[in-house]
Amino acid sequence: MTALFLRDLKLSIRAGGGALIGVLFFLTVVAVIPFGVGPDLKLLSRIGPAIVWIGALLAALLGLDRLFQAERDDGSLDLMLTQETPLVLTVLIKCCAHWTSTSLPLVIASPLLGLFMNMDETAIGATALTLLVGSPAITFIGAVGAAVAVALPRGGLLVSILVLPLTIPVLIFGVSATYAAVEDPALFLPPFLILIALTLFFAVIGPAAAALALRNTAE
Q1: What is the pTM of this model?
Q2: pLDDT per residue over 62-114, tens digit each?
Q3: Which of 49, 61, 150, 152 has the greatest CB tally within 10 Å of its CB?
Q4: Cα-based angle 185, 191, 192 (whole degrees, multiple of 5)
Q5: What is the DSSP letter of 119?
Q6: CA 138/CA 95 separation, integer angstroms
Q7: Per-position DSSP letters for 142-194, written without gaps between them
């Protein structure tokens, strides 16, 4: 499992720029917002957490179509389906490697973009923390879409269409927890715990559903 994790981590970084492309897209999405809403620092500070979360969500969707594509292209997907290791565990490891290479850099870059949006220290810290907790759920949800679209020649757009509606609850509670931390720290815990619960739920459901979709695709 360690070898699989390291292999997928290297492939994810090499394929299409990996983390660099995601971070650059993240920077681009957040950077254009001030030009659209104007130089109102109070407005930027108020909408900052939501914009950072939306930018991170869109950036996380970029590389999801490549989650199983390399195995499909070189034929190793058939080996994954017939090996002794449970396919669910293999998918879980691949999701963890994908999150480490694509979403974790977004979490690390979020404080810098928080400063760009004129957010205070509390908002920056809460945004980074909620992204750290909630972004794995996006990867687990995306694994299902990637598994469904892996056999299609142009499945990248389909993955985004399938995944985006399912990620809305993660976005809602991530932003809610951030705003609660800024307005009233006592209200931070409920949405934050729901965000953790969503990640744990999709950590169980996502790999299982993706493994089932991969088996149906192979058949």
Answers
A1: 0.87
A2: 878 777 776 776 666 767 777 777 888 988 988 888 888 888 988 998 998 88
A3: 49
A4: 75
A5: -
A6: 10
A7: HHHHHHHHTTSTT-HHHHHHHHHHHHHHHHHHHHHHHHHHHH-GGGSHHHHHH
